[in-house]
Write a structure and sequence with these properties.
By secondary structure, the protein is of the alpha+beta class. It folds into 2 domains: 155 residues, ATP-grasp fold, B domain (D-amino Acid Aminotransferase, Chain A, domain 1); 79 residues, no CATH class. It is built from 7 helices and 12 strands. The strands form 2 sheets. The chain has a 6-stranded antiparallel beta sheet, with helices on both faces. The longest helix is centred in the last third of the chain and has 25 residues. The two termini are 37 Å apart.
Length: 261
């Protein structure tokens, strides 16, 4: 059976919003246009715009509106920052900076920080050889000091989730309890998406955690990179991820070499 891949962020967001419990964890997301950007900036003060079919954090732009600034409108694309006195000036420049494809506007979530660098998490969820959804790995992604995205391919640093979360949770029992919440969230995301996309076998969920420790589903990748988990010190995590991927056919089974006669 072919493994189902879903590129459209809009389609995946719509599927998640069909589940009222999941909808609580999905930032408001709208097609990007002049009206949606203006209204969402006024409502949230900070938003992200991103390609509908983008990957690796490429093309993502962070926008802010702060009424008390001399230049109230600001956005950053990669390392470049822009400031404007008016919304119209900002939006006109935004159209020249963004990629030509369709974009979404998403409610901005202020990420937690480690050593003044933003971080989020990649939650890996796979169908087990027994056909049951399991969260098989959670890894932290620490943003490049001068970038707005945390993706490894955009300069982010993979780190153990425990290292990033412990200062906010205080002790080991709270840390393990919170990890359990993220694992359960991952499984529920997979079950929800499966209703719309029945041939899914694996997903990678980008999860932001805000200052009140609420988890937010930023994005779901249906072709997640398993090799990111080789950056963790525990090799058993990647080994299980790889074994599951072989079981559902993403990677071929290794043939054992026959001993010479």
């Amino acid at each position: 059976m072919t493994i189902q891949r879903v590129r459209s962020k809009s389609a995946k967001t719509k599927a998640l919003l069909a589940n009222p419990e999941m909808a609580l964890h999905v930032p408001q997301t709208r097609p990007m246009n002049r009206q949606s950007v203006r209204e969402m900036l006024q409502q949230y003060g900070m938003i992200y715009v991103k390609p509908v079919n983008g990957t690796f954090g490429r093309g993502v732009i962070r926008l802010e509106w702060r009424a008390n600034r001399a230049h109230p409108y600001w956005f950053q694309s990669s390392l470049r920052q822009y400031r404007f006195r008016t919304f119209e000036a900002m939006y006109a420049k935004l159209l020249t900076v963004k990629r030509t494809q369709s974009y979404l506007a998403q409610q901005g979530i202020e990420l937690l920080r480690h050593e003044d660098r933003r971080f989020d998490f990649r939650v890996m969820v796979q169908r087990s050889p027994q056909g049951i959804w399991e969260t098989t790995g959670i890894i932290g992604r620490l943003a490049h000091p001068r970038k707005i995205v945390t993706n490894y391919h955009s300069g982010g640093t993979p780190m153990p989730a425990e290292t990033l979360l412990l200062p906010y949770l205080g002790d080991e029992p709270a840390l393990q309890a919170y990890r359990g919440e993220l694992e359960a969230l991952g499984v529920e995301v997979a079950r929800t998406l499966e209703q719309r996309f029945p041939r899914l076998q694996e997903i990678g969920i980008d999860v932001a955690v805000d200052s009140e420790l609420n988890p937010w589903i930023l994005e779901v990748n249906t072709l997640p990179d398993p090799y990111l988990f080789r950056k963790l010190n525990d090799p058993a995590i990647f080994r299980r991820i790889y074994e599951y991927a072989v079981a559902y056919g993403r990677f071929p089974r290794k043939r054992r070499k026959l001993a010479p006669k």
